[in-house]
Design a protein that fits this description.
This protein is an alpha/beta fold and 374 residues long. The chain has one domain: Rossmann fold (3-Layer(aba) Sandwich), CATH 3.40.50.1820. The protein is 50% helix and 13% strand. It is built from 14 helices and 8 strands. The protein has helices at 4-32, 39-54, 56-61, 116-122, 149-162, 175-186, 215-235, 237-249, 252-261, 268-277, 283-294, 322-331, 347-350, 352-373, and strands at residues 78-82, 88-94, 101-105, 127-131, 168-173, 195-201, 309-314, 335-340. Strands 1-2-4-3-5-6-7-8 form an 8-stranded mixed sheet, with helices on both faces. The radius of gyration is 22 Å and the shape is globular.
Length: 374
């Protein structure tokens, strides 16, 4: 998930990657020119170049292999929604058409393939609808460069409309949870009618810099450093995209993905999948989304949410720390909390079976309650 802390980690790994590659090339050139005569320099330069392009392999081999590793699977049941801003939303459907419906909204950076486990584990009982946020995955970006949370909340409303007349559960992870809070403010009349309940996963209610690790330092750096860096990332997007792939190849992306998303208990495939899915998108688009998150503020919305809400979070999440989720659980009137432990920001993958069971139990009870009220 591309939260502000991930943006800083990506910049750091890009600089490290250039340093490793540049150092290796410089040492070999100096050895070739005779400035460095000892063969030790030859071996060092060659090792640095190998690390630049193959460093990911030993890091992956050190992780255990899982029995069911995530894959970027897609459905052949698809609908595309054209939006007024020129974007197109790619929507996919899984499970029985007449089953109770859950709509999954992913976080910033990946696309809807991040729901690999949820799609497999929930479709025996539910119809699962997933969508790619415009600018990511198979959804086309908006022509007006609007990546605000309000824009995505309106897009979510269009997805809710294609679900039909039956009440649905809305589930959002990370920025997806932020979109759900914005949706609740913009469309309060949907709550209790089309929407039977909310599931907020590893989210926050305010500028995520306020609820991440090192929040005081990052807030102090937001205007003098982070904002200029984000605009620079927009301007240098193609270069940063190449640097991101270099960071993956040398293994530094794997390390930062584990730090920001996992607790060390993830499988080889989960770590690799999460690292790859986060570097496919344009760095310029990712930067615009982070700028939008800096303007996010839905604290006042929490007490106005009128449907049952489940707040799920990883106990060791550093991207959106547990205190943010605990506050949402306290202030949303009909909320309850579920802690995934051990689990980080990607506990939905690392603890996928536990995650799906919690979602299943809440959604089943919530939809039955809504049916009885109707």
């Amino acid at each position: 998930m591309f939260m502000p802390i991930d943006f800083l980690l990506r910049l750091l790994t890009s600089l490290i990657s250039i340093g490793i590659l540049g150092s290796g090339a410089y040492i070999l050139y100096q050895w070739y020119e005779g400035e460095l005569v000892d063969d030790y320099w030859l071996y060092l330069g060659a090792a640095l170049l190998l690390w630049s392009f193959l460093g990911c392999l030993p890091l992956l081999l050190m992780r255990r292999a899982g029995r069911d590793e995530p894959k970027p699977l897609r459905s052949n049941r698809v609908q595309r929604l054209t939006r007024p801003d020129g974007s197109e939303i790619h929507v996919e459907f899984y499970g029985p058409d007449r089953a109770p419906t859950i709509i999954l909204t992913h976080g910033w950076g990946p696309d809807s393939t991040v729901w690999y486990y949820a799609k497999k584990q929930l479709t025996d009982q539910f119809r699962v609808i997933v969508w790619d946020l415009p600018g990511l995955g198979k959804s086309k970006k908006p022509k007006n460069r609007d990546y605000s949370l309000e824009k995505y909340a309106r897009d979510l409303d269009a997805v809710v409309a294609v679900a039909g007349d039956q009440p649905v559960i809305l589930l959002g992870h990370s920025m997806g949870a932020m979109i759900l809070l914005t949706y609740s403010r913009l469309f309060p009349e949907r709550l209790g009618q089309q929407v039977a309940g909310l599931i907020l996963v590893d989210g926050t209610y305010t500028n995520p810099l306020r609820t991440t690790i090192l929040n005081k330092l990052l807030l102090a750096l937001q205007k003098p450093l982070l904002l200029p860096l984000l605009y620079l990332a927009i301007a240098l997007s193609p270069l940063l995209w190449l640097m991101s792939w270099l960071s993956y190849l040398n293994g530094s992306t794997l390390i930062t993905t584990e730090i920001s998303g996992f607790t060390g208990r993830e499988t080889r495939g989960q770590l690799n999948f999460s690292s790859l899915i986060g570097i496919k998108a344009s760095p310029g688009i990712l930067a615009r989304g982070v700028l939008a998150m800096f303007r996010f503020e839905e604290t006042a919305t929490l007490t106005e949410i009128s449907v049952p809400t489940l707040v799920i979070f990883g106990k060791s999440d550093i991207a959106t720390r547990p205190f943010a989720n605990e506050r949402m659980g306290r202030e949303i009137p009909q909320a309850r909390m579920s802690v995934l432990a051990p689990g980080g920001h990607m506990a939905l993958m690392e603890r996928n079976q536990q995650f799906s069971e919690v979602v299943r139990e809440f959604s089943d009870a919530c939809l039955k309650l809504n049916h009885n009220v109707i």
